[in-house]
Design a protein that fits this description.
With about 170 residues, the protein is α+β, with helices and mostly antiparallel strands. The chain is built from eight helices and four strands. It has a four-stranded mixed β-sheet with strand order 1-3-2-4, with helices on both faces.
């Protein structure tokens, strides 16, 4: 899901790589500026309009640039191993956050979110069972959410470190 004014520069390599381009579906959310719930709804609606219908969706944030595939696979493994739960969400120091994987049992509730409300509200609801996956150490640092100047400086330092040590 992207905003209407997103030039998609950050997706150029993936968009033109034949290994990924056939699997990439860019969804434009015209109401993204009205709050996170609109973005979530646009993503769920796009998933529901695809075939085959999804068993689950993953919610991730574009301002968490260091989340790894291994972290997401861990969440999907939890969902795969525990068919009785509705979600698996990430946590650092007791704070629940994306990325999160949510089963189709939660799609109606996701579509019903309002304003700038994300899925976190649903994770505490007695209507849904889930597992909170704790990340610590280096993995916790990778869940950095770049929302302000300070976290942007941290992200820039981390990016330079990864670039220089890889």
């Amino acid at each position: 899901m992207v905003r209407p004014d997103d030039p998609l520069v950050w997706l150029q390599e993936v968009r033109h790589d034949p290994r990924f381009s056939s699997q990439l579906h860019i969804v434009v959310c015209e109401e993204a500026s009205l709050g996170m719930s609109y973005s979530i709804r646009a993503g769920v609606d796009a998933a529901l309009s695809s075939l085959p219908k999804p068993d689950a969706v993953m919610i991730g944030l574009g301002d968490q640039p260091f989340v790894t595939a291994a972290m997401v696979r861990r969440l999907f493994a939890v969902i795969g191993d525990r068919p009785e739960i509705d979600f698996a969400a990430s946590s650092v120091d007791g704070v629940v956050m994306p990325p999160a994987v949510l089963r189709n049992t939660m799609f109606g509730a996701l579509r019903g979110l309002k304003g700038d409300m994300g899925a976190r509200k649903l994770f505490g609801s007695p209507e849904y069972a889930g597992e909170i996956v704790k990340f610590d150490g280096e993995d916790a640092e990778l869940l950095l959410d770049v929302d302000d100047e300070n976290s942007l400086r941290v992200a820039e330092r981390r990016y330079r470190y990864f670039r220089d040590h890889s």
